[in-house]
What we know:
36% of the residues lie in helices and 25% in strands. It has helices at residues 64-69, 79-92, 119-131, 152-156, 183-194, 198-230, 242-251, 262-270, 279-284, 294-299, 314-326, 329-334, 338-343; strands at residues 10-18, 23-31, 34-40, 46-47, 52-55, 57-62, 95-104, 138-146, 165-171, 233-237, 255-257, 274-278, 305-307, 360-366, 369-377, 380-381. Strand 15 (369-377) and strand 16 form a beta hairpin. Helix 2 (79-92) crosses helix 3 and helix 7 (242-251) packs parallel to helix 8 (262-270).
Amino acid sequence: xxxxxxxxETVLTNARLVLADDVIEGHLVFRxxxxxxxGQGPAKGIDxxxxxxxxxxxxxxxxxxxxxxxxxxxxxxxxHAAIVAHDRELAGCGITTVFDAIRVGSIVSDxxxxxxKYARAMADEILSMRAKGALRIxxxxxxxxxxxxxxxxxxxxxxGAADRVGIVSLMDHTPGQRQFRDISKFEDYVxxxxxxxxxGFGEYCNFLTGLHDRLGAAxxxxxxxxxxxxxxxxxxHDDTTAExxxxxxxxxxxxxxxxxxxxxxxxxxxxxxxxxxxxxxLIRGGSHSGNVAAAELADLGLLDILSSDYxxxxxxxxxxxxxxxxxxxxxxxxxVTSGPARAAGLRDRGVLEPGHRADVxxxxxxxxxxxxxxxxxxxxxxx
Length: 383
């Protein structure tokens, strides 16, 4: 059956509509890229057979683009092809708005420890593909500012207000800090990813600690100033203590990505900072780094937003799982729709309401897993 009716409308009927704070049985109408009507009862249109209809998912933090850029170690894929593949994968997972996470801040002085600069070139390619109409979903930029690096300030200076940078997050991957406060976990990660020996790992830790001591404070201040210059939302990354959260609040941070302890999550809520946790953490039952489990924060009412992180298909799956945990599907879906949209300052999407963008997904459940049956972006079907 064709999606578009003779009137130029798309009508989805016989569905469970996930509204901002409720689920109703009824129909949804959209035209000219916007939601036009929400009604209870039947209507002439596409019979959804009782499927769920929800807003398109909004993704604030994903490393998925980097995976397409380098599908295997030392394999660099053509970037335009990687961007398109990333875009199509997200569309197929129900994600209709994404903030593509791109690292800024590199190490260039030591060839043994080098990880190169790529952010400005990557952003240009994303923006170019978007301008050419090659992308099916809405792409924004999320600059991940690595304070433990050599070139952060220079790389941030290459961006401006015209680049559509929506989020700047402060990251500190100094050994013994935040996500990797447990040095053994950092060793497992680095040695497993880069094949470093134990001797090489020790040298690497000393090198990074020296960088942090010399440049960390200036880099953090520069990233905060850059976010203000871009008009971007400022996010923290891996806050561990209440003191770190207080510093984040002083910077004007509105979103906390992956706080590593209950203490930090509680402090975030005390400062009205929204807490993002990884969907894979929830599904797997804990963090690969040994940090606090997303399920624990959900039980405590301290989880506001989900991110797919490194598994795009995890986003909807985890939101449904949260809906079941809380006994409230609307609340679970809000962690991947209205929650992230509002945190990022997007007021035109994330809810099924007349006048909002017709970014819409339709899904059913198969073997307790949400299965997508349709994805629309501004009323156009993309998956």
